[in-house]
């Protein structure tokens, strides 16, 4: 019973850690009088270091940062994630950033930190917690990843937009999780995560508020579409991992 409680506590900490980091972003640059432009880079670097230390001294999960075996098979397992990026327009031309180096460094740090926490650590922890049901572990990890966007409730984002963000993140989380489980290569979901976030850090003029300008009829359709993508991602992820054996 004590071991089960520790596993539950670990899972809760891993899910709440990114949310705590986001909430601390404004405090960081106010307290230390840093340029606000550097705040996200700093707090995500801090999240990675905290998660790394927790894993080293407490969680003790083996994370596979890179794997050179069966490169063709690894690439084939990336295809669902690549298709998802294409469907959601992530390969569209990018805009510009005021500080290109800072933007690139930030998008890399965000991807590394979040993939390390949600794929590298949370999936193995949840796998043990749910009695070695890998697909359930992936779903919980994916919704933990999606739950980050609930923080936008504090920013007074419309509910339909938050719902769409949660389902979209959960959909990509399923595919990134299945990719990591199949390839034992955290670098691959990190690459896809970077591509996912590039439009945020390199926005094109006129695209920043496009989703918030949807009409009343379009809003529920957007949420339904994202929920549909999530269900499809669940099916694809299940087919990818159904015969996969892991040793967590």
TrEMBL record:
Q: Can you give the residue ranges of the CAAX prenyl protease 2/Lysostaphin resistance protein A-like domain?
A: 99-198
Q: Which Pfam families match?
A: Rce1-like (PF02517)
InterPro entries with a match to the protein in the record: CAAX_protease, Rce1/LyrA-like_dom
Q: GO MF terms on file?
A: endopeptidase activity
Instruction: Mark the transmembrane ranges.
Output: 12-32, 38-59, 71-88, 100-122, 134-151, 157-179, 186-202, 222-241
Keywords noted in UniProt: Membrane, Transmembrane, Transmembrane helix
BP-aspect Gene Ontology terms = CAAX-box protein maturation
Family, as annotated: Belongs to the UPF0177 family.
What the entry lists under PANTHER family is as follows: CAAX AMINO TERMINAL PROTEASE FAMILY PROTEIN, SLR1288 PROTEIN
Could you identify this protein by its name?
Answer: CAAX prenyl protease 2/Lysostaphin resistance protein A-like domain-containing protein
């Amino acid at each position: 019973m004590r071991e089960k409680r520790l596993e539950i506590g670990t899972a809760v900490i891993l899910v709440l850690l990114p949310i705590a980091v986001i909430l601390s972003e404004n405090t960081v640059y106010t307290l230390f009088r840093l340029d606000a432009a550097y705040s996200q880079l700093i707090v995500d670097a801090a999240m990675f270091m905290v998660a790394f230390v927790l894993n080293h001294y407490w969680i003790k999960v083996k994370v596979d940062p890179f794997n050179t075996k069966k490169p063709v098979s690894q690439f084939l397992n990336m295809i669902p994630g690549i298709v998802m990026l294409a469907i959601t327009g992530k390969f569209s031309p990018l805009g510009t950033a005021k500080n290109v180096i800072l933007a690139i460094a930030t998008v890399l740090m965000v991807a590394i930190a979040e993939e390390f926490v949600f794929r590298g650590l949370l999936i193995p922890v949840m796998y043990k917690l749910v009695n070695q049901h890998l697909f359930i572990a992936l779903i919980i990890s994916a919704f933990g990843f999606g739950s980050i966007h609930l923080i936008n409730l504090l920013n007074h984002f419309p509910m339909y937009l938050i719902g769409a963000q949660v389902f979209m993140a959960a959909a990509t989380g399923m595919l990134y999780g299945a990719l990591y489980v199949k390839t034992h290569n955290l670098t691959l979901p990190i690459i896809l995560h970077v591509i996912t976030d590039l439009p945020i850090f390199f926005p094109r003029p006129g695209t920043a508020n496009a989703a918030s300008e949807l009409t009343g009829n379009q809003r529920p359709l957007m949420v339904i579409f994202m929920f549909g993508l999530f269900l499809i991602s669940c099916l694809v992820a299940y087919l990818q991992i159904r015969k996969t054996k892991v040793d967590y």
